[in-house]
Amino acid sequence: MKHARPQSFPACPATVAVLVAAALAAVAPAAYARNVRLMESVADTTRVSRVHDILGNLDLRFGGDSARGGDVVRRDVVVKGVGTTKLHEVGDDARVRPSDHDLCARAFEDAITQLAFAARGARATAIVGVISNYEGKVFDDPDHFECHVGALKAAVTLRAQLVRGPVGVPVISPPTPMAPPPAPIPLPPAPADDAQPHATFQPLPPAPAPAPN
User: Fold this and answer.
1) pTM score above 0.90
2) CA distances from 131 to 23, 29, 120, 172 (A)
3) I need a surface site. Which of 112, 124, 149, 178 has the fewest CB within 10 A?
4) Do residues 58 and 119 make contact, with C-beta atoms less than 8 angstroms apart?
5) Are 147 and 156 in contact (CB under 8 A)?
6) Residues 199, 202, 205, CA angle at the centre, nearest 5°?
C-alpha cells in the first residue's frame, strides 16, 4: 500500500510578512529595553562638550546648596536632554555606535542648551541648584549628573533655579588671623678696621743714665 506524500504549498507573501513582523516584534523589545544608569562627571563632560560656548557669560552651579543667594526669577525649571547616535538629521555619524559616555555628553549638552535658553529668556545671570531629576527622582550631587542610556539614545533630566545677581556660596569661617612675627632687632654695624679705638696709655719715659763714679 502506497503512502501519500504530503504536498507542499507555496507560502503566501502576506503570511511571510506577518511572520517576519512577528519575529522583529519579538526581538525589538529586547533591543530597546536597555536602560543603563550612569553617574557622569560634570567637569569631565563639560570639558569634552560645547557647554562653555553654550553658557557664555552665564554661571552654572550644580548641587542644591548652590541655589542659596541671588534673586530667583524662575524656579524649578525642568529640562530633558537627549543624545542620539546621529548628530545630524540625515545619515549616521559613523558605522561604529558612539560609547555610552559620548551619548551622555550629547544629552548633557542638549539639557544645558535648554537651560541656557530659558535663562536668557528670563534675563537671569546664573543657573544654580542644578540637580538630576530623572522621572521625578532626585539625584543631588555637586560633581555628577545622572544619565540613562538605551540602545540608540541617552537621556539627562535636570532641574535648576534661574537667578539674577550675585550668587551666594556656603559660608566658611575665615581662618583666625595670625599675629605678625616680631620685627628683627637691628644689630650695630661692625666697626671698620680703621675705626678701631686707639690705646689710651702713654709710653713710660726712658730710664735716666747712671751717674759716673
Assistant:
1) no
2) 41, 30, 20, 23
3) 178
4) yes
5) yes
6) 150
